[in-house]
Amino acid sequence: MDKTTKKALIKYFEPYVTERRASLLKKILELRTRYITVVLEDVYQSHNTSAVLRSCDCFGIQDVHIIEHRNEFKLNKDIALGASKWLTLKKYTGENPSEEHPINILKKDGYRIAATSPRKGSTSIYDFDINKGKTAFFFGTELKGLSKELMDKADEMVHIPMHGFTESFNISVSAALVLQQAIQKLHQSNIHWQLSPDEKIDLNLDWLKKTVKSAESLEKKFLSACGNSFS
Question: Distance between CA atoms of 215 and 178, rounded to whole angstroms?
């Protein structure tokens, strides 16, 4: 579907939502970013993964990558509170031999890999330089953290300073703290972190289709009237 058709379809859908809802979608679009992304590696507790998704939505992170090589991702709707509906979730199961590892995919897309770890030599999130480029923050399992493979391939390591006896935060807390600092730095910078115009069009259309009742049948009707085939 070309951009002109997408824009026309957005205008077609908008009367089916309240003016307040349409305005809210556009407002949130302006605050969404792909400059920062989050990757969850084999996190198995649904309340933690769901809480991370909720934090990502709250902080304006659009993409979340989920690695399911050992543990299956499960959503707890009572905790996520619908956050997954507005995010772009990308899953990697490792079951397909041709499936490329997300680290390689993200690096090809210009992301630096930041592994969250309290390991000696890691950078405090308070000192993290957001200006060095797009960043993918990796978070590991609740007990063992990130895999050795991922740690070996990471471009840098990031930790949250702690001042108590406990060695680590809960993963959902860690993600929230890391993202709060990173997003604050990003919004205070001169970096162009917003989505591109084409990305905004795609996402606006996707969100409207998830909001409007019977969106699929309405889209078919619209495209048929325009002489286009539905895809």
Answer: 37
Q: Are 213 and 90 in contact (CB under 8 A)?
A: no
Question: How far is it, in rounded angstroms, from Cα 174 to Cα 48?
Answer: 10
Whole-number Å distance between alpha carbons of 6 and 219 = 10
Q: Token pair 């085939």 is at which residue?
A: 229
Q: How far apart are CA 90 and CA 181, in angstroms?
A: 24
Q: Which structure tokens are listed for 220?
A: 């078919």
Pairwise CA distance, residues 227 & 52, whole Å: 43
3-state secondary structure of 151: helix
The residues with which 156 forms a beta bridge, in sequence order, are 114
114, amino acid identity:
A
pTM: 0.90
DSSP 111: -
Task: Judge whether 70 and 94 are in contact, CB under 8 Å.
Answer: no
Dihedral angle computed from the Cα positions of residues 207, 91, 157 and 61, in that order, rounded to the nearest 10 degrees: 0
**Cα 54 from Cα 132, distance rounded (Å):** 26
pLDDT digits (tens, 9 = 90+) for 24-83: 999 999 999 999 999 998 887 778 888 999 999 999 999 999 998 777 777 767 666 678
